[in-house]
Amino acid sequence: MNNSTWQHPYVNIFKHFDIGSTKKCTKQGDVTALMDRELKSTVFRIRGLVPANNYIQFPAQSSNQTLALTGHLFYALFRPIFDKFFSIHIDILTHEQHLVRISLSNLYREFKVTQTSIQFPYTSPNTTMHWTVLCFDLESILLTYMTNQHYHMIKSFQLCGNMMVKNCFSSKYFYDSGLSNQKMKQSSNRALPRELSYPVGKDESWHEKYDFIMIPNSSSSIIDENSNDLSSKIGSVQVHSARDSSRTDDTMNQSFTNSIQNTISPRDNQNNWQKSIKPIDGFPSLPTMPESSTSTNHNNDGIHLFINSQSIPSNNSINDDFNFDLALTTDRSQLSHLPDPILRLRTVIGLGNRISSSTSLLWTQDGNYVLYPSNAIVVQMHVETQQQWFFIGHTDKVSAIAFNGNSSLLATTQTGPSGILRLWKFETRRCICVVRVPGTSNLHALDFGIRNLSDSSSTLVVVGHGEQPQQSRTIVCVYNTLNAHKGSIDLLCRSTTDASISHIRFVPYDSTRFLSIGSDNIRFWRMKNGNDLKSMSISVDDIEQLEYTDLQFEHSSNNKLNELVVYVSSKSGHIIELLYDERRVVKIHRLLPTKRSNGSTDKITMANGPSIGICAFTCTSNFSITGSNDGYVRVWSNDFTQVYIEAKHDQAICGLVTSHDQTRILILTVSGSLGVLNLVNKEHTNLIRAHTQNVTDIDYDDTRKQMISVGHDGTIRIWCFRTGKQLSEFTAERETPVVVTYAPNRQIFACGFDNGTIKVFELNTSIISAEITHHTKGITGLLYAHNGGRLISSDEEGTLCLLDANDSYKLQRTVAKALSTSQKGTMILSISPDGKHTAYVGPTEYVVTIVETNSLNQTLRIDISSCTLITNDRRSITSSEAALFARFAPNRQLLVATTNFKLLKFDSYTGKLLNIINNIHKRTFDCLTLSSDSQYLVTGGDNMIKFWDDANFQSFVGHSEPIQKVFFTDDNMHLVSIGDSIFIWDVLAWTTPRPGQLNTTQSTLPSKMLERVPSVLSILDNSGQPRNPPEPFQYSQQNNGHTARAITRSLSNSEIDKNTNVPQGQKKTNNKKSSKKQTDNPPAIRRHFIQRVNQSHLAKKRYVAPVNQESLKLRSIIGYNGNGRENLAWHAHSGFFAYSVGCNVIVENLNNNHQTILTGHTEEISTLTLSNDVSILASAQCSTLTNKDELQTKIIIWDIKMLHQKLYLHQSVHAIQSMAFSRDDRFLITIGDYRKPMLTLWSTHDYTNLLNWQDESSPSSYMNCLAWNSARANEFCLGCSNGCIRFCTIVEQTNDTNVRLQVVNGYVPSSISEHAKLPCEITSCVYLISNSQLVLCSTNCGFVTCWNTRTNSCLLHWKADSNEICYMTAMKYKLLTGSASGCLRLWNIENLEVNLGQTKNNDS
């Protein structure tokens, strides 16, 4: 019986290979199983910013497993996600034993064929993505686009986000889509199997609801043996439609060249929107032929993709003058769609909660704009109009910002433990690079080196604290940002100091020198040789304990360092004047308060008394400007003897920056005001005023278009909603306002304070009309009844009070302990849409109570800890939750947020549980709101906003702290969110055209996609902002897990002539002998070397030209053999660097990239090793069969000094798995791979074979790694299969040639294998440098074990990774592990010996 009969008639891949099994399937990233309402079945949603990081893959281990699916037709039932990238990759094995990848993706702009891949671009004319049946005829694809390649089987496939997928199956039969019973009887075609088809209603047409795509669209191989008319039906690739029957094939045919030359992707959607004004010209769309080649019937409904493999002309025949319009659309594309993004940030009112210095203020060169951070956002504001634009991407508070010389690049840093540095292209406000500054946290200062105003200033210095919270040391890093536009920057040097640094400035016209100041130090820095950072500090002897506040250089038109003057200000009122070149203090200025004589406002003289505390300082070519803690901004002469201007502010000055033309000063105060002082006309313009601490509550007046807010800074502020300007401010003494609400008539508002007082203010007169003191604890909730006659209040003790607003706010009723006190927030009370009922959580966190607003009489109590939901299929789901808050919806529903981040929907009349929505947020769930028609839900949590439309949502970042409240305006056109600042968003669901019609509204792609397409953002709207920041280190990485072990070999002598004629009988005999040994169950771990199958043979006749007479010389090789193991050698101190490519060893000079190619091997090199004295390099190749059919693995010994072959050795194994020199370089050990695991010991004196050893007791056991003891030259350990570690000692008897090997076995604890549920293997070993008695071993299940080499026992183990740990290396008190998933982890093992109770003294 044929072994492929089990695949007849088809294979349901998801079911047969068990998609839920981790051994047969890999689900990476955001992959979720959910119930699709349209299909009424379970589907899998794959989504993520980078498709390569979010995928479903069959089989789980694509490198050493295979699906072995022989059906040449591959079907995928999927639906792409609109305006997102997706990819489908199918790896097939040909009869010629070649691996070919066939891919379909909307990432591809054009059709492309290489020796190992075929790439099809995907396009669609509609904004509505339909469920699709995608069929690949793999055999026809190979015959059409590959030469001499014949389909054999499907090895693996990968579905990469963003898409919804129901199933995949393979078959040798073609299944026609949408066949009715009547048509199926009349036709010999096969209909889609029921379990692999889509549901169709009684009166519905399959082609009206779904799409069918065939690749290629014309093929003879898909015709069944019983079908005679199938070819006429699929003559071209098209989406079948019931309305297509009236069209001829000529009408439907599209040139595939036209399609692949004009593929539209999300990138094109951004690049072309300005040129297109038609509503149908949106992404994704298809190009069409000129009008002369199209039919007059323009009803193209249902067409999504055209691929015609039979009509690909040559490049020379393509007419560049074709006018390809975007024309093929459907009626369904005209339906309204949720725009992406649905929110656009319009106004930010806030300056940050930690306003500290002028490192956060910038002017643009033209003087029209200023930049400042507002918590996690950098705001760009026009000085005249106060219009705002935003740099969005940071996840914590922005601490410092800086421009390069020509203001083309903006650098920003954020606080927090992550140490994130972002670089932005200023013109487009696009983040082009994100860097995790190594070993740092709380970055707080940075500066660009500026040589001149037209320079791009590639040198950047960044300052932060140590990564550990208890670490107080300061870290200074210098970067070269020359390649920032490519997504990466280079770290030039790094230094650590105990001195504190608050400000840092580059020396003008020199990008290698800079100065820093801290609380009590002035330090000079200099870079030597480009990577050596040195510093020196100076002290001011005359004054003790100066606290420096700002640093400025004197304006100079030349770049002479010997004339450069530095000014340093201090809180004590002293300004230190230094001469930079001499590193010495020239003069100390003490600034005294001023007084005016004889009442004159013109003459200002100095007064006696204490000095002025200077908080900020700047200077121009003619003046010096100081900002002091008394609130004055003073303009001095350069010698500080005369004051020209004094400007009084309400509180201390904390930031001063002069414009480039030196005519205006940007002033920041600790009270939250930002203004501009014009030095010419002495006018002051206020740009913004804001809360200086978190905003706790806000309310909106739709009549006046005003907002009122309260914050922890103790102020009550009223804002203009349209402009964001502050209209008035109330300051409370000895009490802090916490909640606020407008009365329905909008003439008064009530404010609750933290001491339990409630005050009612009149807006017109700003007087307090009533003061209520019924509560003794802080107020938590306030709301008016709809008629304004009742005021309900709650406090921290859970007391609920009802007040009569018409009768001087007399107390009507009090309910003690009515509310739960376990949760605190601003959404304590919620009033129903009709105003008759009020809901709250209480008296416990498991109960939600609804009372009458006018009497507080209880009408309904819901116990959410025991609610049961009956689903449509009669299943019951019980909810046992604790409530956070409750909120009425406009449609009589009651929404309850729970501590498990779920949202429960109740009927507010009956208390029936209607629905449960899981995973609203991940860490916190702070607030929610609904639009007035209940169509959209907005939630706040995890410092972000989620905008929900049914089960779909969009996330928006910008807040750096918990969101206290979010609400729609009365017209649903805007959304307001508060927390660290006040954010006003435009809701684009009502006013913005669907994404297919791009105009001046915001158009945004995920930022990771934007980094891949730098040209996209050059056309973004000024207000367009990325919603999701790109993650650090993601822009320079190209993730492709399938190619890690499939890098093409370099050409070797065995590949000189692939067409050498070999007798058929001899070829079969050799293949039979070799294949039998090479297919002996290779190990499933990535650490073990697996030799690639070599189909080439050495030429029988070869000519080798004499030296220096070659007509062709190999100059350089680009590549690296990723299939090798430990095939890279690097000695950091000497700079020696070597690696293998195919059968060649490359020695590369890292300074100039010059390559020296060492030839001599004829097969793939498996491993390299370098002697400890860096004099010898050893390389080992895979085995070749001799005339006697004996295995011979060649090992070449290279002289590093002369870079030539010294000698070669032979070992009778299939391949060398690992080899290493002993500590004193007297011995060399080589171990064979799994097919013949033999250990060989060589003497490096004359390279004689001292001994061969193999474990005869366990023939199935093999060795994966070896490690020499760093302290003892005769000890080493072997990591083996079956969880075995072998501790070996070389026992020398009379001389070096008479040795024996002493081996002691140890086994990993059985609990590790039981935990991993798979056989345990040792994959890497390393001896600790600090204690040679300890050796660390990693395993294939992610554990690291620690062994005592004297007792041969396992002392401890820990879970270090979720995947196989392939390599480890130890430094002093540090351990670096690398896993098969590409994850590197650095471990601190300093206390390892102490925890094990061992001494730190090594034995002699």
Automatic annotation (TrEMBL):
Biased composition (Polar residues): 1049-1064
Keywords, comma-separated and alphabetical: Repeat, WD repeat
GO cellular component, one term: centriole
Domain WDR90/POC16 second beta-propeller: 701-986
First and last residues of every WD repeat: 688-729
Residue ranges constituting the CFA20 domain according to the UniProt record: 1-180
Residue segments, region Disordered: 1020-1086
Protein name per its UniProtKB record: WD repeat-containing protein 90
